[in-house]
Amino acid sequence: MTLPRLLLPIVMAFSGLFASAVQSSENIDPWEPMNRRIFAFNETLDKYILRPTAKGYRAVVPDPAERGVTNFISNVYEFNSIFNSLLQGRPGNALTSAGRFLVNSTVGLAGLLDVATPMGIEHSPTDFDQTLYTWGVKSGPFVMLPVFGPRTVRSATGYFVDTYTSPPAFLHDQEYAYLFWTVEAIDIRAQLLKADELVTGDRYIFIRNAYLERRQFILSGEQVEDSFGADEY
User: Fold this and answer.
1) pLDDT tens-digit readout, 38-63
2) Which of 12, 107, 156, 228 lies 20 to 30 Å (CA to CA) from residue 133?
3) 11 and 132 Cβ atoms separated by less than 8 Å
4) Distance between the two ends of the chain, CA-based, in angstroms?
């Protein structure tokens, strides 16, 4: 039995519990009152911890070094793109991601430099949310997670699967894994600093819609280069 067939009943049972809420009411956000309370908590956390930390990071770290950190993190997750491409039945994309990982991990100094793109090895990331989408798993309702921000039930499932199947999760010393994830969160928040100026009106609605629209573009195979380029908020 293949790995997708082993995993599919589990993830479909999990997501199926919630997908019916969307299908019956055609409301992507049936848990809005709860989500807004969690959003308020996240806003407070962001105001006093995440945003000041990201601003300090951007002020202290030179731009070339910051790009190197972003490149390193992106290179680590090429492993997940290989894994998910295979689960999606896309061996060509898996080979491309493997090529990027090999080139950037060696010539690119452990991924600090992206030398694969200038060589014509294009970045084509994919994640477990896309894998579940390929398998026919419904998105389920929108959910605002504490700390981790906007998701759907399916993308939340995919996020945690991707996190715990990424190389840092396999490190013997988990302190380094948590260090990696902390730096990743700071780097993502730093990338979103300029996007703060674009948020207008009801912040919850704006961020929810921006997230859902971006995920839909990704699932449809579009390339998204907007200010909300990171999943996390």
Assistant:
1) 999 999 999 999 999 999 999 999 99
2) 228
3) yes
4) 38
- Say if residues 73 and 187 touch (Cβ distance below 8 Å): yes
Phi then psi for 124, rounded to 5 degrees? -135, 70
Mean pLDDT value across the chain = 88
d(CA 145, CA 138) in angstroms, rounded, equals: 19
DSSP H or E run through 55? helix 51-60
β-bridge mates for residue 142, sequence order: 152
Question: Does residue 196 surpass a pLDDT of 60?
Answer: yes
> Residue 73 corresponds to which tokens in the numbers above?
């993190």
CB 206 within 8 A of CB 227: no
User: Rounded to whole angstroms, what are the CA distances from 52 to 8, 73, 96, 108?
Assistant: 41, 21, 37, 31
Cβ atoms of 143 and 153 closer than 8 Å: yes
- DSSP summary character for residue 195: G
pTM of the model: 0.83
Least confident range of 6-10, 98-102, 148-152, 208-212: 6-10
Q: DSSP labels for 116-128?
A: TTTTT-------H
Which residue shows structure tokens 């999606």?
88
At residue 101, what is the residue type?
F
What is the band of 224 on the pLDDT scale with cuts at 50, 70, 90? very low
Residue 227 has pLDDT above 50, yes or no: no
Q: Which two tokens stand for residue 54?
A: 């990201």
Single-letter amino acid code for the residue at 105: S
Q: What is the DSSP letter of 47?
A: I
